[in-house]
Amino acid sequence: MTAQSDDLTFEALRSSTVLRRGRILARTMSVVLFACAVISVLITTAIIWVLVSESWVFFRQVPLLTFLTDTQWTPVFTNARYGVLPLLTATLWAAGIAMAVATPLGLVLSVYLSEFARPRFREILKPILELLAAVPTVVFGYFALIFLTPLAKQFIPGLSGFNLLVPGFVMGIMILPYVVSISEDAMRAVPMSLREGAFALGMSRWRTAFSVVIPGAFSGVTAAYLLAFSRAVGETMVVAIAAGQNPNLTSDPREGAATITAYIVQMSLGDLPHGSLAYATIFATGLVLFAITLAFNVLGFFLRRRFREAY
Amino acid sequence: MADALHTSEARIVAASRVQDMVFAVLGITVLLMAMAVLATLVADLMSDGLARIDQQFLTSFPSRRPESAGILSAWVGTTLIMLVTAFLAIPLGVGAGIYLEEYAPKHWMTDVIEINVSNLAGVPSIIYGLLALGFFVYGLGMGQTILVGGMVLALLILPIVIVATREAVRSVPSGLRESAYGVGCNRWQVVWRYVLPAARPGILTGAIVGLSRAIGETAPIITIGALTFIAFLPPSPIQATAPFVNFDWLNSPFTVMPIQMFNWISRPQAGFHVNAAATGLLLLLMTLVMNGFAIFLRYHLRRSLRS
What we know:
The structure holds two protein chains of two kinds.
Chain A: H1 3-6, H2 10-15, H3 17-54, H4 56-61, H5 64-69, H6 85-116, H7 119-134, H8 137-153, H9 165-188, H10 192-200, H11 205-216, H12 218-234, H13 237-242, H14 260-269, H15 277-310
Helix pairs in contact in A: 3-15, 6-9, 6-12, 7-9, 8-9, 9-12, 10-11, 12-15, 14-15
Chain B: H1 2-49, H2 55-58, H3 72-103, H4 108-120, H5 125-139, H6 146-170, H7 174-182, H8 187-216, H9 219-223, H10 257-265, H11 270-306
């Protein structure tokens, strides 16, 4: 044994400065990275805390029951009424119309992409669809108000300049790429052997898609629609621009009506004194919005996870 | 007998072919419809606003007269906000993504973080605006500044960066990690020297997609109470005297392009609608270029992984 190789004993290695520095850095970084991940949890906590604490002023003055059942929303009038129903129904109308557009189109498109289109063709089509999702929502709002509404007025009698129908339709097109990408993922996760079994029985691609693939991917496809609905409920600029800012409890989507998000935008544009009741209303309505989207998101998350585990 | 069987089989096959053909045509029709909406939108913006984009438009402040108004303060605001957003969201998101893929032990805490990230991705953007209004603007007393605007957009795109990082890190072959561990690297060295460089294109793609989303985001910025009429520029980040950089701009009031556009849409004069269309066209161009670049990167990445 020479002296040189004696230096390379295990003990010497352990105490070497270079390695010790490396170990300290590694330990520090694992704490730093953990902190990064924990910040995401803190964001959710902060959201809930802010929404609840800032709307506290509101719920101390307006009973929850009045808030949920009164049919008028006139917070800035002298004789103020605080019923969230007009905002809520407008929100659901717009999101419902969006789903009525996105559901059939999304189903056809995702079946087409997953079962019919050739892989090479699909690789070209999917990015193009994604471009549709990349368009800023304020641009979609402009399109709905300045271009589509005047056009739709020629075909739909009684359509107002601000209405729920056109922004609902535009939102439907807007969430289409989102629906397609999730439900197509779910369909492609269905094992090939199930399809081959159906083909062997003489089924066409079309029948295979609807009686084997879609039932097999059911939870994932449902998740796609739940998540898309949540997105439509929370969408802001399209409805704020094209559906008007007038709270209106209506059963006619040809009329304009402010959604929850449009109301928050409208109030934020004015000067809201911190701590006032008007300031608290945007947090109270925001809390309702958050609760709805949270419910759909969590449900969607678990359904999506289920289809991933199924195969 | 055998012949009859053959003909009925043939009929089923023929009927299947027809059904499939009909459905394929239907699929392509829907696809073309979606494309037609996008094309109409672009054509509409171009016919309304393309002629309005000139040097005057890019170098003027907003004005009461539509023909002398411009988007100088808006595009400067958008650029500065994006700087803050990128500076905050990319390190945080990449850090969280690496933790979840490379470090996280399998227990309830990890599950909570995971459910949480996927839920954050679905929280409406306007809720982030309310968070920033209640917490940053009033809770911490930071006011309606560029820093707050950048922070709220950073929170908004954090889930996108995290998810992209996780996918990119997951696709790094495990042989690379094992050989690095084998020659004595510790975990951080493996991540920093081998995993991150290999995952870089994927992470970059996610970051670009996230930033392109942030550029067009309007609602959260309106909610924090950003002004719509800004006729001055924030202090310059670069100065002639030492230390040559200046962070006063972070505390400056601001406006951004989507807000300027929204403001012009909500005015009755047609001249302002032309301005809105021109702004929308520039916004659209920016997001499409960024997304196009991201798609190109991903395509390139896939090819290089295959070979």
